[in-house]
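User: quick one, fold this
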Amino acid sequence: MGKEAPSFSKFGKDFQESLCQMILQDRPFADQIMEVLDIGFLELHYLRVFVQKIFEYREDYNVHPTYKIMISIIRADIEGENAPTQKQLRNYFARIHNSQVSGSDYIKSTALDFCRKQKLKEAMIKSVGLLQKSSFDEIAKIINDAIKLGDHTDHGYDYVKDFERRFEFKARNPISTGWSEIDDLCKGGLGKGELGVVIAPTGAGKSMALVHLGAEALKQKKTVIHYTLELGDTVVANRYDSCLTKIPLGQLHSFKEEIYEQVQDLEGTLIVKEFPTKSASTRTLKTHLEKLRMREILPDMVIVDYGDLLRPISSKSEKRHELESIYEEMRGLAKEFNCCLWTASQTNRSGLNAEVITMESISEAFNKCFVSDFIFSLSRTIEDKQADTGRFFVAKNRNGPDGLVFPISMHTANVQIDVLTPTGTESAVISTKDQSEILKEKYKKFRKQQKEKGA
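Assistant:
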């Protein structure tokens, strides 16, 4: 009997479909595996056709195809295939469109390892015949060339090969904050890969503002992962109950059935994960998100309540340096998992009784402002707490204007926060120019401290 040809059959259908999806989605990976992939390794014919079309397009036009181009190819360029193959190919493409691959790192490394081993085997078999001729230099070249095949080739964005990517529509897919006035400023809400920060002093309502943002995402049928580092998971869940149903926190137990009837109709998904204060790092959160992704739970929004209570991955000489790293890592999580991330930050003492909290009041690490995409502060004086009022100040906004103050109505009894239309005097309290000057002064002070430390 002849020896069975090598293939991906032992890895299963899901593995092969995910591999082909990544060849389309990830141009650097396609460059890498194209050097070692034999189309015959794919067990299923429609996947062979799919990958062959990608490779043919790359060869003809010297650019990597986009989803939009593949739609045209699948519609018009597979007529030579039989009807079952055409149907399988169209169904497959419909399934992977706008979907994400779970376990991508494992699939990439496993597929590359398999293909490279096959190429090395071929080189070794070819070298056996050269031994009789004592062609040692040629043997060395064949083996070395085989080892280099499929090596890491991601050198960055290729100006020519990645030409099509420049003209793809890049959707932020923002998730609304539930406050139309704020959404108007930041073009619909916080987008994928973006970091938003709520700044407030202790007791002002940072956690409740984060719950409001999560509840609004749930109403929009989104998947929300809420990490709590200060409150219990059921306490946070109760706040969601109150925010979504408007039933006061103190009366939730009396309306258990009514609450259940309302929340069970939600099409969004909420997972609340509790970690003891300073016990979890951004690496801990990443591990948890990876586990959820393996269960096909893909976050649209991640909430960290709050970032200052995370444990740094590596210890720094000063706390502010640790906090800077934590916020950089949180933004990295938002990018990696293609979601938006909201967190909160504590103010210093100057923010306790301030009518408007600016970025100058941020506690410890000012550099966390630099990596954030949207920052708003929540200020409530003693009089505000008695009157259920307060103020939002938009301190930073990458997608629109900042330096604006909005009056708010805030009822902590049932976690209801509404942004009101600002009056002329309130909206002009702090200008963007003032904020720029604050940033410059802070940066000068930071650089001076660094120089003194170096001296």
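User: anything notable?
Assistant: Residues 104-131 form the longest helix (28 residues).
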